[in-house]
Fold this sequence. Notes:
Number of domains: 1
Oligomer: single chain
Largest sheet: 2 strands, antiparallel
Distance between the termini: 23 Å
Low-confidence stretches: 1-25, 300-304, 435-454
Number of strands: 2
Shape: globular
Structural class: mainly alpha
Amino acid sequence: MDMSETNTTTNMVEDYYDVQDDYLADSLPSPSAAIRGLGLGLLVFSVSLLSYWGDIALAKPLAIFSQLIVALLGISLFLSITLTDAKLAFPREFQLLFAFAIWSMIGVPVAIHPSFAVRELFTLFKLLLMAFVILNAVNGRSAYKWFLFALVASFFIASWGGITGLARGAETIMMPGTSLVRYEGLFGNPNGLGKLACLSIWASISLYFTMKNRMGKIILILMMLLGTVVVGWTGSRQSMLGLIVIMASTYWFFLRKSVRGIPLKILVFIMMICAFALLLVFLTKTPFWHRLAKIAEPGGMTEAGSAGSRLYYMIESLRTVAKHPFKGVGYGCMTIVLVGKSTHNAILGMLANTGIIGWFLFFGSLFVAMLRLRRIQKMPIPRLDWNLALVGWVLYTLLFFWSALTELHLYKPFWACFAANVGYMIWVERTYHSSVSEIGPVDDYQAVEFIPEQ
């Protein structure tokens, strides 16, 4: 096939999907994607606030509100699946996660504090149920885009709420000879807002490469810039480093593959280097850059400091793993070992809490999701879905990076984003599976060069 024939085929396919987009956009007939999207939006906003909400009096109503949305979405999905030919999704990723929860339950009798482990497991099962509902609610492209829009909107509302003083807004931290104000928005915690800003940037990148409206693209660029600025204001080290991870993974997994031609590839690489330099310049000009730089200073990793204390927690986690390698000390019980502190490291914390088997079950679910993403990347799917799938690598890179800095399984937006992405990938596989079985995998650059049977 020469170049003219290839371009003609590609144009025919894109025209075909422009016509068929409404038909292909969602495979769950009821409730509509808009209704599910609204529910997902409210759910994302409430669980984002719950992750670090500083006002205990308001946290309980938010928790009840989010659980109510999960219940309503769950009931509507159950009715839709029961009354139609829609299929319930229970992929390997969630089979592993439920196996992880069951394994953690088995470890309760030998936990160092069984009642505490039971309480933590109750929270885990609520998060699993929420994720399972989101997985099946995001049963189409339009519902997935609703979810991404909700993530961006939640970040904007949380940031603006802090600016206008609707909630805590900021906290003052005292340093020798000075006092700095860390911006925390509605959360009551700068790290919470910083991480939501990073997730919002990922969602904005995903939407940007599927957006046809020029004004919409401009708004998404502004949201990316706002997210970058807010991360600088929060002084969150895990978010600052997360920004660098997002930029590097966006180039490596998406831009270098989607751009054709050596000259254009070189131009994109130079632009990414310039953008990375500008990001570093911005971060070094924030009053919180010293929080990163202090780590390299003499005494910067002592137990008294924030970074030093986290290093201490990691060392204690390793000692615990050496003593209890098989079953761990019980789900969530490292908090007891560390006298009320968390491990701040999901990779070591999961090993210490649930042992080597629990670790493999939990992180195995992320690994299986990446294998699914890799398989979809090779499928002959429309360019729009191919873009959404490739940007998914940015999410998984960010999640694995945060696993080394936070207790990922306790971060509620992780469950929501992971479930939504897996649900979308399952829809892609179901929608285009017949075409794959007939045509077979194609090169990444030919992802739209086919027309499925009508």
